[in-house]
Amino acid sequence: PVPLPLAEEPMLLLGVTEFVANSAAFVYFTAGALRWTVTGDMLPRRFPLRLSTKGLGLFAPQLQELYPDRPMELRVWARRQPLLSCRPDGLRLALHGTAETSVLLPNGTRAPAFLLHLDANVTGKPVLTASRIGVTVSLRG
Protein backbone atom coordinates (compact mmCIF):
# COMPACT_ATOMS: atom_id res chain seq x y z
CA PRO A 1 0.00 0.00 0.00
CA VAL A 2 1.07 3.54 -0.76
CA PRO A 3 0.01 6.07 1.87
CA LEU A 4 -1.52 9.20 0.34
CA PRO A 5 -1.48 12.56 2.10
CA LEU A 6 -4.75 14.00 3.36
CA ALA A 7 -5.86 16.97 1.30
CA GLU A 8 -7.25 20.03 3.02
CA GLU A 9 -7.60 21.92 -0.25
CA PRO A 10 -8.70 20.68 -3.67
CA MET A 11 -5.77 19.15 -5.52
CA LEU A 12 -4.88 16.53 -8.08
CA LEU A 13 -2.73 13.70 -6.80
CA LEU A 14 -1.25 11.12 -9.13
CA GLY A 15 0.67 8.11 -7.86
CA VAL A 16 2.59 5.74 -10.08
CA THR A 17 4.21 2.70 -8.53
CA GLU A 18 7.10 0.53 -9.69
CA PHE A 19 4.55 -2.13 -10.57
CA VAL A 20 2.72 0.14 -13.00
CA ALA A 21 5.92 1.36 -14.68
CA ASN A 22 7.46 -2.12 -14.90
CA SER A 23 4.21 -3.62 -16.19
CA ALA A 24 4.13 -1.01 -18.96
CA ALA A 25 7.80 -1.72 -19.77
CA PHE A 26 7.01 -5.46 -19.94
CA VAL A 27 4.12 -4.87 -22.35
CA TYR A 28 6.14 -2.57 -24.63
CA PHE A 29 9.15 -4.92 -24.58
CA THR A 30 7.06 -8.03 -25.26
CA ALA A 31 5.24 -6.29 -28.12
CA GLY A 32 8.57 -5.30 -29.72
CA ALA A 33 7.82 -1.60 -29.38
CA LEU A 34 11.19 -0.72 -27.83
CA ARG A 35 12.95 -0.40 -31.20
CA TRP A 36 14.07 2.76 -32.95
CA THR A 37 15.80 3.56 -36.21
CA VAL A 38 17.78 6.80 -36.39
CA THR A 39 19.03 8.35 -39.61
CA GLY A 40 21.25 11.38 -40.09
CA ASP A 41 18.41 13.67 -41.10
CA MET A 42 16.66 12.97 -37.77
CA LEU A 43 19.51 14.57 -35.79
CA PRO A 44 19.47 18.32 -35.12
CA ARG A 45 21.76 20.33 -37.39
CA ARG A 46 23.72 21.57 -34.36
CA PHE A 47 24.36 18.01 -33.13
CA PRO A 48 28.17 17.70 -32.97
CA LEU A 49 28.35 14.26 -34.59
CA ARG A 50 27.03 13.43 -38.06
CA LEU A 51 25.63 9.97 -38.75
CA SER A 52 27.82 9.26 -41.76
CA THR A 53 31.09 7.49 -42.50
CA LYS A 54 32.78 10.90 -42.58
CA GLY A 55 31.31 11.89 -39.20
CA LEU A 56 32.18 8.56 -37.56
CA GLY A 57 35.55 8.37 -39.32
CA LEU A 58 37.20 9.76 -36.20
CA PHE A 59 36.18 6.64 -34.26
CA ALA A 60 36.46 4.11 -37.09
CA PRO A 61 38.77 5.38 -39.88
CA GLN A 62 38.26 2.14 -41.84
CA LEU A 63 34.62 3.12 -42.47
CA GLN A 64 35.64 6.28 -44.32
CA GLU A 65 38.22 4.33 -46.32
CA LEU A 66 35.79 1.56 -47.34
CA TYR A 67 32.73 3.77 -47.85
CA PRO A 68 33.77 7.38 -48.51
CA ASP A 69 31.23 9.94 -47.28
CA ARG A 70 28.21 7.60 -47.13
CA PRO A 71 25.17 8.10 -44.88
CA MET A 72 24.64 5.69 -42.00
CA GLU A 73 21.72 4.36 -40.03
CA LEU A 74 21.54 3.49 -36.33
CA ARG A 75 19.10 0.86 -35.09
CA VAL A 76 18.58 0.63 -31.33
CA TRP A 77 16.51 -1.91 -29.41
CA ALA A 78 16.05 -3.27 -25.90
CA ARG A 79 17.64 -6.69 -25.29
CA ARG A 80 15.82 -7.06 -21.98
CA GLN A 81 12.88 -5.35 -20.34
CA PRO A 82 13.80 -2.02 -18.68
CA LEU A 83 13.33 -2.13 -14.91
CA LEU A 84 12.43 0.81 -12.69
CA SER A 85 12.95 0.85 -8.93
CA CYS A 86 12.11 3.54 -6.40
CA ARG A 87 14.93 4.14 -3.92
CA PRO A 88 15.55 6.76 -1.23
CA ASP A 89 18.24 8.32 -3.48
CA GLY A 90 15.83 8.61 -6.44
CA LEU A 91 14.45 6.54 -9.27
CA ARG A 92 16.72 3.90 -10.77
CA LEU A 93 16.29 2.61 -14.28
CA ALA A 94 18.19 -0.43 -15.59
CA LEU A 95 18.56 -0.39 -19.37
CA HIS A 96 19.93 -3.20 -21.55
CA GLY A 97 20.06 -2.44 -25.23
CA THR A 98 21.84 -2.99 -28.49
CA ALA A 99 22.88 -0.43 -31.10
CA GLU A 100 23.69 -1.54 -34.63
CA THR A 101 25.06 0.79 -37.29
CA SER A 102 24.91 0.22 -41.02
CA VAL A 103 26.27 2.09 -44.00
CA LEU A 104 23.60 2.98 -46.57
CA LEU A 105 24.96 2.00 -49.97
CA PRO A 106 24.05 3.63 -53.32
CA ASN A 107 22.13 0.52 -54.48
CA GLY A 108 19.80 0.74 -51.44
CA THR A 109 21.35 -2.08 -49.43
CA ARG A 110 22.97 -1.81 -46.00
CA ALA A 111 26.51 -2.82 -45.07
CA PRO A 112 26.86 -3.67 -41.35
CA ALA A 113 29.43 -1.48 -39.60
CA PHE A 114 29.44 -2.34 -35.90
CA LEU A 115 27.28 -3.68 -33.09
CA LEU A 116 27.33 -2.40 -29.50
CA HIS A 117 25.64 -3.84 -26.44
CA LEU A 118 24.72 -1.01 -24.09
CA ASP A 119 24.00 -1.66 -20.41
CA ALA A 120 23.35 1.27 -18.10
CA ASN A 121 21.92 2.04 -14.69
CA VAL A 122 20.48 5.54 -14.56
CA THR A 123 19.50 7.27 -11.33
CA GLY A 124 17.27 10.32 -11.42
CA LYS A 125 16.54 12.45 -8.39
CA PRO A 126 13.91 15.21 -8.48
CA VAL A 127 15.04 18.71 -7.57
CA LEU A 128 12.33 21.11 -6.44
CA THR A 129 12.85 24.83 -5.95
CA ALA A 130 10.37 27.66 -5.48
CA SER A 131 10.18 28.30 -9.24
CA ARG A 132 11.43 25.15 -10.97
CA ILE A 133 11.13 21.41 -11.08
CA GLY A 134 14.15 19.55 -12.36
CA VAL A 135 15.99 16.25 -12.23
CA THR A 136 19.61 15.38 -11.58
CA VAL A 137 20.70 12.31 -13.51
CA SER A 138 23.68 10.06 -12.92
CA LEU A 139 24.78 7.17 -15.11
CA ARG A 140 26.51 3.98 -14.03
CA GLY A 141 27.68 1.42 -16.57
From TrEMBL:
<keyword id="KW-0325">Glycoprotein</keyword>
<dbReference type="GO" id="GO:0050829">
    <property type="term" value="P:defense response to Gram-negative bacterium"/>
</dbReference>
<dbReference type="GO" id="GO:0045087">
    <property type="term" value="P:innate immune response"/>
</dbReference>
<keyword id="KW-0964">Secreted</keyword>
<keyword id="KW-0472">Membrane</keyword>
<feature type="domain" description="Lipid-binding serum glycoprotein C-terminal">
    <location>
        <begin position="4"/>
        <end position="134"/>
    </location>
</feature>
<keyword id="KW-0044">Antibiotic</keyword>
<dbReference type="InterPro" id="IPR001124">
    <property type="entry name" value="Lipid-bd_serum_glycop_C"/>
</dbReference>
<keyword id="KW-0812">Transmembrane</keyword>
<dbReference type="Pfam" id="PF02886">
    <property type="entry name" value="LBP_BPI_CETP_C"/>
</dbReference>
<dbReference type="GO" id="GO:0005615">
    <property type="term" value="C:extracellular space"/>
</dbReference>
<keyword id="KW-0391">Immunity</keyword>
<keyword id="KW-0732">Signal</keyword>
<dbReference type="InterPro" id="IPR017943">
    <property type="entry name" value="Bactericidal_perm-incr_a/b_dom"/>
</dbReference>
<keyword id="KW-0399">Innate immunity</keyword>
<keyword id="KW-0929">Antimicrobial</keyword>
<dbReference type="GO" id="GO:0001530">
    <property type="term" value="F:lipopolysaccharide binding"/>
</dbReference>
<dbReference type="InterPro" id="IPR032942">
    <property type="entry name" value="BPI/LBP/Plunc"/>
</dbReference>
<feature type="transmembrane region" description="Helical">
    <location>
        <begin position="12"/>
        <end position="36"/>
    </location>
</feature>
<keyword id="KW-1015">Disulfide bond</keyword>
<keyword id="KW-1133">Transmembrane helix</keyword>
<comment type="function">
    <text>The cytotoxic action of BPI is limited to many species of Gram-negative bacteria; this specificity may be explained by a strong affinity of the very basic N-terminal half for the negatively charged lipopolysaccharides that are unique to the Gram-negative bacterial outer envelope.</text>
</comment>
<protein>
    <recommendedName>
        <fullName>Bactericidal permeability-increasing protein</fullName>
    </recommendedName>
</protein>
<dbReference type="GO" id="GO:0031663">
    <property type="term" value="P:lipopolysaccharide-mediated signaling pathway"/>
</dbReference>
<comment type="subunit">
    <text>Monomer. Homodimer; disulfide-linked.</text>
</comment>
